[in-house]
Design goal:
The complex is a heterotrimer of chains A (435), B (291) and C (335). Chain A has 435 residues and is an alpha/beta fold. Chain A is built from 17 helices and 15 strands. In chain C, helix 2 runs parallel beside helix 6 and helix 6 crosses helix 7. The chains are: A alpha/beta (435), B mainly alpha (291), C mainly alpha (335).
Amino acid sequence: MRQKRMLALVLALAMMFSLTACSGGGDGETTAAGGTEAAGETTAAAGGETQAAAEGEEGSAQEGAFNIGVYQWMSGNAASIGEEMKVAFEIAVEDMGGTVNGEEVNFIYYDTTNNPETAVTAAQYLIGQNVDAVIGSFQSSDVVAALPYLEDAGIVNVFMGTSGSLVTDDQKYSVRGAFNADYSIPQFVATMQELQYENVAVFYGQDEASIANWGAMEPALEEAGLNVVAVETGSESDTDYSAQCLKIVDSNPDVVYVVCSGAGVNFVKQLREYGYNGIVMNKDEWMTSHVDQIGEANSQYVMGCVAYTTYKSIEAAEEAGARPEVITFLEKFQEKTGTLPTVGITYRCYDSCYLMLEAAKRAGTNHDADAIIEAMLGINDISLCMGPVDFTQGDREPCHEFMRTIYVDEGSKNFDSWLTNGGYDAYKSATGREK
Amino acid sequence: MLKSLIIVGLIMGSIYGLIGLGYSVIYRASGIMNLAQGELITLSAFLGYTFFGVCGLPYGVALILTVVIMFVLGVMIQKGLVSRYQKRGVTGVYMLLITFGLSRVINGGEALIFGSNAKRFPSIFNVSTVNIMGAHLQPERIMCLFLALISMLLVHLFMTRTKTGIGMQACAMHSKAAEACGIDVVKSNGLTWGLASVVAAMCGMMLGPIYGVTLMLGANLSQMGFASSVAGGMGNIYGAMVGGIIIGLIESLVGGYVNSTWKSMIAYLILFLILAVRPTGLFNEQAVRDV
Amino acid sequence: MKGNMTVKKLNRIILLVLGVIAVILPLLITNSYRLYFFSFVGIYVVAASGLDILFGYAGMISFGHIAYYAIGAYVTTLLTSYAGLPVMASILIAAAVAAAAGALVALPCSKLKFQFLALASIAFANFIYQLICNIEFLQPYRGMKVEPLSIFGVNLNSDYRYTYYFILVWVVIALLAKHMIVKSKIGRAFMACRDNTRSADGMGINVRKYKVMAFAISTFYVGFAGACAAHLNELVVCNTYVQANSFNYVIMCIFGGVNTIFGPVIGAVVFQFINEALASATAWRDIIFGGIVMLFIAFLPGGCMSALRGLEEKLAARFSLGKKEAASKGGKKDD
């Protein structure tokens, strides 16, 4: 009984002390008086002082280092993504030589827990930590929420979301470090026309990126004169897509276009079960994790138009004609962890980080956002996992080339070579389809 | 299409019913609402994946191993955690929060051990789909239906015909009186959780092949399972199944004829209305009213 | 009697300490993130206090209060963006709407036993979440922009010190109101309903009426908090309003101590700090958080307030012991 009370007291006191320790913003190394020029400021990030030195805890900015803040969903369902991201960052730093402009690179992470409002908090936190740069989430809704604050604070940031809606004209310090999913739309439509498809069925998920993508795809299909025979929607967390599958199969489409968070794995599986065995065009990369979830048979003939995709082994990657940069990255990744990345987001992480470090190097400084962003927008002479990087096209996008892939025979293959090598005929005879 | 939708609804309903059975069992035998049931299902799926997928053991062996391990885990949770809390006088809402905390811990543990990527649970049958009146179903789903029916029957027989089972119910009604009658309350309580965990184990082994093994497996489905057990009457074994089928049918038909995104919304609305209007559920189960 | 004195004295001490800290905080801390953080703490204090009225004083549990948080947030968004109402008025109206919703829910559900009430609240919260996700106009997934927090035309979000003081004022008002309610006849009726509904009924208290009232008051608080949060973040997204987030408020009350004025305050502060500390914990986050919840319930079910009370009692005991000795030795006297 006594012990219980003691323990309870200790617990409470520990809480109290940690409270005061954490909130101690006024003690220690504060910068000169007048830290807040709040009176004249109109932005939210009015003058901050580095509490970091006072706190000295993990996840805080360090003096004399290149502090890069990272906000992303890193726990729960995205825990593995978070782990792979950290490895990708490590590789990028090593590729840069370990230091940038003479300073070590220090990453400060903030988990957004799949909630864009937490992304706002994350942005505030990182701004308060006076970070030099920020790498942003692969989730487009996080980026939409956090970006205005980062822009206001004048912090250069590279984001990894792929939704077309993320880049707007009024941005000054933000660029994308991944590919713009909307750029794949013309290639998808061109492929449909190449294969002489007329009837298209669509399934889109209830999430920001998918809704935005469908919003861009719909007019493109119309313009190309394609016939949209069914449009269904659902959510990634749905348990059953029978109604949607029945309607799509009934409409007898030539191809089904799927855009859904998580690549709509369960939907694709049920679509296959309901008897549709034709090509599925999927906006997302068809990753090994997806194959893991629904099996090889259901993954057959999923076509993508992507900057990169995942492979089961380095040999498979080479065979599929992956870019040399991807292969080098995979080799380094395997050396560090013993396996290959299971999600395409890992490539985005490497590319974004490398771009940030490279821009800083070219600018000659880690702490001047204007110089860094200027240097960034001039990069057009390197090649990363996404392929040749070209920021000089004026759209703040680095990636303008996609490769077409198709998942067939237990691996992601190059679509173009698949076509030329008679893969399409094999597909037609295997499925009994005319198209 | 109506036929297929109905069949799908029945099958989904049986899945919900089987999950709801776990909730009902614990409630009937100990009066606790167990918010960690969903995570137990996910855990079972991961265990099943480890035995069946990774180790390559035959499905039957994997099933038995998983069931045994989950049973032991259930008993351990009861003995090591729940009863300790109950001794401290933790009841009611606090107990609910304990199960909530437990579910977070289990989920976190799974993320750490298995990683958050989905895992492949190999098919049990060689045939990938079976066509029943236009509804293309995975054979595992049909197996779910049978398993649900059988489990329901077995659990009911156990709780009403066997000495242990009746003892469990007695403990739930009045543990002191049960003790006075010579029933081993401690053992009985442990058995309750063990039984619920076994039900969860079977759910997990069934759901793994259908949805793949993901961290959210239990969480997504358990909400509806919970709803089923309430709709049928919390604590009523057959009620869980009936409630599940009703919810499954509603979801399926709404999805097919109204709007696929409205399914969950309407299902929850109906659950809320049931609780507001007839909280004792379909089978008029247990006294629920407070003044 | 000694116990009563201790509680009152404790409350006064805490009031003094917290009050002083709260008022001079922006002078101590100039980091704008930290001010934003404490502004949010203030919002959560209001929400947790509301839940405490329902749970700690009226004895009803709700795991679905996030629904009212959502209602408050979206109503104020719509009123300020489309009806052009001033922010302050809009927040109050939104809170009133949330209160009305709470009353509506409470009418049929307040008679349920706690497990079923919990379940009904979960069902309602899930329903509201799904409803939000299905109304395209609200742009649930991308998020809808909200007018910034402002009063008399002054944009408070431009400097988080303004926001902080604004919320501080409302926190004080909310806590005062709660104190008055609790001390009044209504509060006593709540506690009577909590402790024994049958006897309360027997004493002539209209149990139903007071239960609905408790619900409405608590949802007013939570709706108010939700509305403020919407204007603070200038964004409303559906992910914030998943049912699981309701547990946060219950946990805050438990951490701090139910049935007290300052419990929710301490609970909200502790909760937010834990959240922030876990922000870089990635995969360990869930385990640690779940573990903390379970430990608290095991060892400190009364929350930090009960621990402080224990501490205070111990100190008081020592203090009085010293006094006795001093008196007997004829030594110095403390007042």
